[in-house]
Design goal:
437 residues; mainly alpha; Cytochrome C Oxidase, Chain A; 0% strand; globular; disordered C terminus
């Protein structure tokens, strides 16, 4: 673990917009699920399902990760940004491309999808120009930096295959089969999101939970094995293999995250901070969702024989919900309530410490609101996944409404952290001290 030095990071005004815009993607995904129709449970490539997935992945999780890497790279990993102006342009391009792309998928307008897809590719290129020097080499540096560097390679691969599939839909170059969709999805979901979540956790879990007696023992091996399994597995899935080949791929792909989960559990059980805050709670909840996602992924690989009602789309949908909204999403929510308040304190109040009373980091956000957001989101994820597995559209829609409500609360609380003034919590005056205002 390396020590944070936020003074080397970019201005709060560059990072905060990414965190504030991100929950809008989850809000959109929740609303899309809230208005699901019967196709959602019958085909995983139904337009509304694909739209909700991309709203959650590129609109919510990816947008927040952009902001986190822009901050963590210079401040924690020792890298640098090529240009803060380029990062601001990147935000504008991404904020325009994402809703256009999601809307095009909802309408299944392949021409508009292609135009918006080019915008998304431009967004990822602009991001990588800054992110690669900020993160560093995948073969050197700290464990978190190696994970993040590997994840940048996977986001480039996922974006490349994604825009190719969009071009194939418009120009009919070749059929976009379920196997090709699965390969693209796992490059993005496990290669980009998964490795990012894993790498950031190696930095933030020990830091926020004060873990001093235990250290990661297999992080480098997990990274190498998981990266290899994702590359090989994605390429194999694109050939539309039979069920037992898919099961073999699933075992290989899930082994790394499962071992990572064991590492995180070891670290959390060895923590010095015994009282769990929102980030600690989120870590345990996310590990639970990861375990469920692994089981569902294995069952989805088997396919129709073990699918509820003989409908594979239901178990695939539940797998996606628990992996995206449960594992990655819960970790993101927990970390956001630690990263953003600290940045606000550092950039807005640090210079006044010792001169006048200033709030501490705990004064900048409400632990109660943070826990409520985490609870609503976790419950919403469980309800939506249950609705998918049971084939009950009303339960799935209810989960979507709850996801949208949790996203709105998350957005409002993050906006309060960044925009509202914060007062220090009064403390008792000790003997011989003078009360000050």
């Amino acid at each position: 673990m390396t020590i944070a030095a936020p003074g080397r990071g970019p201005a709060l005004g560059l990072v905060a917009p990414f965190f504030l815009a991100a929950p809008a993607g989850l809000l959109a995904a929740g609303l899309i699920l809230a208005f699901s129709n019967g196709d959602t449970l019958l085909a995983i490539n139904a337009p509304r399902t694909v739209a909700a997935t991309h709203a959650a992945v590129i609109g919510w999780l990816t947008t927040a990760i952009f902001g986190a890497i822009y901050q963590l790279g210079p401040a924690v990993l020792g890298g640098r940004l090529i240009s803060t102006r380029l990062a601001r342009i990147h935000f504008a391009v991404h904020a325009a491309a994402v809703p256009t792309f999601v809307w095009a998928i909802w309408r299944w307008d392949v021409v508009l999808m292609s135009v918006a897809g080019v915008g998304l590719v431009a967004s990822f290129v602009l991001f990588l120009i800054n992110a690669v020097p900020a993160v560093g080499s995948p073969w050197r540096g700290t464990l978190p930096s190696r994970y993040l560097a590997a994840s940048l390679g996977f986001v480039a691969l996922a974006a490349g295959f994604g825009i190719t599939w969009v071009g194939a839909l418009e120009h009919l170059w070749f059929p976009v089969t379920m196997g090709r969709l699965a390969g693209h999805a796992h490059l993005g979901l496990l290669g980009w999101l998964g490795l990012t979540v894993m790498g950031v956790a190696y930095q933030l879990v020990p830091m926020f939970n004060v873990v001093q007696r235990k250290y990661p023992v297999a992080g480098g091996h997990i990274l190498a094995f998981t990266s290899s399994a994702i590359v090989a597995g994605a390429l194999i899935l694109m050939t539309d293999p039979g069920p037992w080949v898919r099961v073999t791929v699933a075992v290989a792909m899930t082994a790394g995250p499962a071992l990572w989960g064991v590492e995180m559990l070891r670290l959390m059980l060895a923590r010095s901070r015994r009282t769990l805050d929102v980030q600690g709670r989120a870590t345990f909840v996310a590990l639970g969702f990861l375990a469920v996602a692994i089981v569902l992924g294995m069952l989805a690989a088997v396919g129709e024989p073990v699918s509820p009602g003989g409908e594979p789309a239901r178990i695939l949908l539940a797998y996606g919900i628990t992996g995206i909204s449960g594992w990655a999403g819960v970790m993101l929510i927990g970390n956001s309530y630690k990263i953003l308040p600290f940045l606000v304190w550092y950039h807005r109040y640090r210079q006044f410490a010792g001169i006048r009373p200033v709030p501490v980091v705990a004064d900048i956000y409400s632990e109660g609101v943070a826990r409520a957001t985490l609870a609503i989101h976790s419950a919403a994820t469980a309800v939506a996944a249950a609705g998918a597995l049971l084939g009950e559209l009303d339960i799935l829609r209810t989960g979507g409404v709850l996801l949208a409500g949790g996203a709105a609360l998350h957005l409002a609380s993050l906006a309060h952290i960044v925009l509202a003034p914060h007062a220090p919590t009064p403390r008792p005056v000790g003997p011989g001290e003078v009360a000050t205002r």
